[in-house]
Amino acid sequence: MVNTNLLMSQLQKIFIILLLSFNYTIALSQIDTTQVKQHIETLSSDAMEGRLVGSKGEKKASEYITNYFKELSLIPLQDKKFEQPFSFNYQLNPHNPGENLKKIEGINVVGKINNGRKHTFVIGAHYDHLGYNEYNLSTDSKGKGMIHNGADDNASGVAAVLELANIYSNNDVVEPVNFIFACFSGEELGLMGSKSLAKIIKNEYPNVSFMINFDMIGRMDSTKTLNIGGVGTSPRLNDIVFKNKPSEFKLKIDSSGVGPSDHTSFYLQNIPVLFFFTGLHTDYHKPSDDADKINYVQTNSIIEYAQSIIDTLSINPVLKFNETKFKTKKSNATFKVTLGIFPDYTDYGDGLHIQEVLENRTAQKYGLQKGDIITKIDEFIITEIYSYMECLSKLEDNKTYKLTYIRNYTTQTIKIKF
Question: Which residues form the PDZ domain (predicted)?
Fold first, then answer.
């Protein structure tokens, strides 16, 4: 015999899901493409002076983001202020750990939408960049004193956060989750802003069940490949990522919750994460990373895709957290040597894949190429980015080592001197 009460309950759940899905489909058409472009152009203009953490440029950028949050009528996270200060000590000379420390004060900008729900999603991106290359992080050997505007890195990611804040604050829908919109600073010097904020959010919002991070989403190339990390941090993420994928996109998936951006800080607080990234390019960390090189059409498509994932997850916002295999591999290593490559952070299991080779650096000098797979340096076996970093921390400058790599399925060994 049919239990009518149970049947009615199930029908009500189905109706709610269909209703939510309908409303979210309408919302997907609300991407303000003009506004996205304006955010990127403004944040990466010379007026922002490269948005270095602790600088006047960072303050200008934080005020721009704050004013936009106020325009959307978001609520400050705490202390009735959108701007959340933090401080840290930065090692000016990595060759002398513990010496030459500089105290830097930065600003995170955080707003929220309180829908009165139990669970909360965090939508984040870092807004800082390299300034005038004060800390020598430029990949341009002539970059000292030049403004590094960081249009892709990471005005593009911030634009995604601001546009999603715009959508969720103006779509006339009360979503099944609350939202925190977080723009971090200090990412370029070691995820400093997100480390501070992730701890605060975990303590004050224990029901945060998901975080999505955008870092460099503005330069999707002709292959239309989007890198998405963190899919292994909760059992449902992989399926939802693929079910919502735009047909024209190619996905490059990484299961790990640890990566070279701010989602790592939230993963280490046991929060499931996703990380959106369109890949490195020759303008990475150079003064030439400007707004006129952004692929605005695809950037808007990525924002729409991210929204569809957020909407799908929010229907059932209880996400089980999974540890991924790099959780305990925190690298506090300092390096006396550098190879001069852009590493691929994806774990393929067969070595460190070279994504780009920098001009006039060690790798180029010894003939290493994009696509080569480094498997061993000296006696150190290289399987992915973490073993590579651990290896570099143990090597000495002005010494010669054997390096083994794979090119076109053929293993080769060379001698290199750092």
Answer: 349-417
Note down the domain range covering 373. 341-417
DSSP 80: T
**Which CATH number characterizes residue 400's domain?**
2.30.42.10
pLDDT tens per residue, range 321-354 = 999 875 433 444 556 788 988 888 777 778 999 9
Name the strand (E) or helix (H) holding 178: strand 178-184
Distance of CA 230 to the CA centre of its chain: 11
Please return the burial class of 204, using the count of CB atoms within 10 Å of its CB with bins 0-12, 13-18 and 19+: exposed
Reading the block at residue 356, the tokens are 């780009």
Q: What Å distances lie between residue 263 and 197, 212, 327, CA to CA?
A: 11, 7, 13
Predicted pLDDT of residue 98: 62
Report d(CA 125, CA 166) in Å as an integer: 15
CATH at residue 272: 3.40.630.10
Q: Enter the pTM of the model.
A: 0.80
Tell how many helices (H) and how many strands (E) occur in the chain: 10, 15
* Extended beta strands in 261-351, E state: 273-277, 341-343
Whether residue 136 is found in the same domain as residue 211: yes
Tell me the β-bridge partners of 401.
416
Q: For residue 159, how far is the Cα from the chain centroid?
A: 13
Comparing 18 with 138, the larger pLDDT belongs to 138
Q: Of the candidates 154, 207, 208, which has an alpha carbon nearest to the alpha carbon of residue 184?
A: 154
For residue 8, with 0-12 CB atoms within 10 Å meaning exposed, 13-18 middle and 19 or more buried, which class applies? exposed
The structural domain count of the chain equals 2
Q: Average pLDDT, whole number, for the chain? A: 89
112 contacts 78 by C-beta, under 8 angstroms: no
Distance CA 42, CA 222 (A): 26
Neighbours of 250 (CB within 10 A): 10
The answer to whether position 200 is within a domain reads: yes
In this structure, the answer to whether residues 289 and 371 fall within a common structural domain is no
